[in-house]
Structures are given as C-alpha cells and as structure tokens.
C-alpha cells in the first residue's frame, strides 16, 4: 500500500531504502569508537576531557549492523542485543567515572598551567588519531558483520585492508612530528601516535564479530582505569614542590612533569592494542591468502564517511587546543574543568539516540510520518526530563561546585559553566535533529551543517579567545552548537514536519520521496468574513489613535 499523508491523500511511494552504504537512508549511528579526551566534546569513551552534546551521528554512518545479517533478531537475539546495549552503557559509564577522576586528579595535583598543558597535548594527540583512523573502525564493524557468512579468510582480508593504511599513515605522521617538534611532551605523543590510532580500529573490529565485551573490558575499563592509576602514580611521586611550582607555562614545563603525565596517559594504548589483536587472532587463521576485492569493498563503504568523521573530530576537540594556543595552558585547564560535568547528560543523550534511531529509520522509510513525529517528540521529552535538571543545577551551583571539586583556582570558570549550561538547554530542547536528518538519508546536508558549525566555532574562537580566554571559547562553542542543532531542526521540520514539541506543527508535510500535496484553501463563510472585517476595523482605529497621539 502506498504511504498516506497526514490528510489521507495517497502519494507516490518513496523509493526503497538502501542499507549498508554511505549516504543511504539508514544512517547515523552513534560511533562507538569515538573518544572524548582532555578537553574533548564527543561521546564518552576515553580521556579526561569535557564532553559536549554532540555525540550525534557522523553523516553517512549506516548504523549498527546485526550480528548475523539477513536473519531476524528474536528470542535469544533480542536478549543478545539488549545485553550488548547494557554492556555498552556500562562501559561508557565506567570510562566516564575514570575520566572524571583523572581530571580531578590532574587539576588538584598540579598547577593550572601544567594541567592545561597536559589537557591540550592529549587533546591534540587524539584529534590527530581520530582523523588518521579514516573511520576504518566503523567500516570494519559493517563489513566484518556482513562477511561472517562468507568465511573467515575474507574477514582477514578486511582486517588487513583497514589496518595497513591506517598504521602506515599514523607511522608517517608520528615520525614527521617527532622530527619537527622540540617539546618533550609532544615528542612522547608522536611516538605513541600509531598505537593510539590503531587501537581504536582494532578494538572496533572485535564488534564486527557480534560482541561488545572486548570493547567494554578494553576501552571501557582497562584503558581509562589504567590511565587513572598511572597518572595518579606520577602525581604522587612528583612531590608537592614539583606539582605546585607553577612552571613556565610551556607544554613541557614544570620540571618535566607534563612529559611524565603524558607518558603515563599513553601507556595503556599499546596494551589495549595488543590484547585486542590477540583476541582477533584467536578467531582468525594465522595464515591465509588475501581474497581479492576486500580492500575495495571496505573502502568503498568507508571513504565517504572519512571526511565527515574528520570534521566531527575537529568540532569535538579543537576548542581546548585553541584556548591553550591563544590564551595559555591555565585558561585551557579552567575550560576543561568547567565543562567536565556534562558527562551524565552526554550518556543520557547517547542512550536515547541509540534507542530512537532505528525506529526513526523505519518510520521515515515507510512514510509513517505520524510515527516519526511521535518518536522524535517522545525522545526529546525524555531527553529534556533527564538532562534539564542537571544543566539547571549545574548552572546554579557552578561557582561553589568548581571550587569544591577542582580547587579555588577553578572557581573563575563559573561564567563558562553558565554559558555551556544554557547551550545544553537549547541543544537538548532541539532533540536528536542530527540523528533524524541522517536517518532520513540527508547525509550531504548533515555534513554541510557540520562544516558550518565548525567554521562558526573557529571564527568565534579566533575573535573572542584572545580577549575573553576560556569564556570566549565557551561562546564560540555555543555558537557552533546552535548552528549544529538549529539547522538540522529547521531542515527536518520543513521537509517532514518533525518538531520536538506540540501537535500544531504537523501540517503540510510529505513522506520521503513523495510529491507535495497542498491542501485547498477553506471556503470563507459569512461569520469568518465578519470576523476578518472586525479585525481590520480594530487595526484601523488603533492606527488613527497612534497618529493622533504622535
């Protein structure tokens, strides 16, 4: 049966939804190998940085793939999916707690300049690592899950096709960085860059075998907890004199404490990479010929999303690097501390987006606009109910909370907290507009809006950070977030009638791919004509009175 408009008119049916390809109707899952870091704004996964509400989909992401494609998920499959979802949320929660404690440990155990230099250096490292991954991790999840029915040798080919280019590129970039920079902390990160980059790709490959447990144990528990323990050991052995000496403001200042902190922070990555690789080796043959066509199959699916993933990484992590460069490491530390409390809201938004996305895809693909609107509104209402008390409470208690948790030096971050809380109220009120946009297949528009958000953030940061410091960075990020949320919201409302609140916005919409059908104008009755004439008469009397009193 052809889909119906809200008014009941039959329209031309929408074209079928392609799956498993970039730019398809079914897009936009929350990436599980994204890695928030010191000063980061992406999904909760690793690193002790601020987490912003921008964990939405990378445009073109085809979303989660069932463990056994082509087979319906029911019975035990439902329990497996539910268990994987619980495992993912548990890993994200454990990692978030460890990241928060790492931030508290660094800012309480060192001076603001040292903390800011540490946050800026590690943010720059993971910004480079995310771009160098080329989104190969999510591409592996898709192709490995799809090739499970065709045998393990093909999975070996896919794994080689993904890891060899990423490892080669990260080795080249790390070598160039090591030879061109003189800062000791950045040179440590340059040496570790290949391990940081490849660990995310290899851990993502384990999810292609239909299990979340390696991701939970390695990137959800082992990596953040290991970073917390090692950083705590460095801070404890540095002594109060070295930790509070004040340093010279450079990244490698404070008597070598920053390079030691950075080395402790990167040490778990080679361990995670080795364990994930061993897990894969146990499930794959040790030697096998590389099947033809595996590389083209993988990168044909992945390359359109690589650019979007890079832009998303820049939007998530560039703010702290700009603050450290233009306003100094101390301001970067204040900015990181002031934005750290959004982890809980980030987790809530990520969970709701993962739950609503597949249903939105099905509703929009089937032309069921009423169902799509109801899903969008219900997810927005839950998001507002869960997160607005957090943002309002944080805005009210920010001056006391920052000083009590991080120290009196960070109480000056209260204006940053107020700006970010207000921005998060606006962002959550818009709902998962970026998820709905990508689910409807408008991946090009999603990428364009993301580029516009990054451009807005960078321009505002360059204008405001030199004079306002961390507050300028917060205002720049707020401008980028407004663009990132309001433009997709306008798009899905104009095209499909989706709106986060109220039933009065459901008029004159169409299903995806269908011609627009305009409703005829309602015939005017004597009563409506009289009411219209009375309104015009009142307006004329008011205009005459305004001219007389002027």
Task: List the keywords.
550 residues; mainly alpha; 17 helices; disordered N terminus
Task: Kindly describe this structure.
The chain is mostly helical and 550 residues long. It folds into 2 domains: 85-239 and 246-338, no CATH class; 342-515, no CATH class. It contains 17 helices and no strands. It has helices at residues 76-109, 112-132, 136-146, 152-180, 184-207, 213-243, 257-266, 268-283, 294-327, 329-338, 343-365, 369-406, 414-430, 433-439, 443-468, 470-496, 526-549. The model is unreliable at 1-46, 49-75, 241-255 and 504-520 (pLDDT under 50).
Topology:
Layout: H1 76-109, H2 112-132, H3 136-146, H4 152-180, H5 184-207, H6 213-243, H7 257-266, H8 268-283, H9 294-327, H10 329-338, H11 343-365, H12 369-406, H13 414-430, H14 433-439, H15 443-468, H16 470-496, H17 526-549
Helix pairs in contact: 1-6, 1-11, 2-5, 2-7, 2-9, 2-10, 3-4, 3-5, 3-9, 4-5, 4-9, 5-6, 5-7, 5-8, 6-7, 6-8, 9-10, 9-15, 9-16, 10-16, 11-12, 12-13, 13-16, 14-16, 15-16
Number of H/I helices: 17
Return the domain count. Answer: 2
Largest sheet geometry: none
Shape: globular
Give the mean pLDDT.
76
What's the gyration radius in Å?
Answer: 26 Å
Helix content: 55-70%
- Number of E-type strands: 0
Structural class: mainly alpha
Strand content: under 5%
Span of the ends, CA to CA: 64 Å
Helix/strand order, N-terminal first = HHHHHHHHHHHHHHHHH
Q: Which stretches are poorly predicted, pLDDT < 50 over at least 5 residues?
A: 1-46, 49-75, 241-255, 504-520
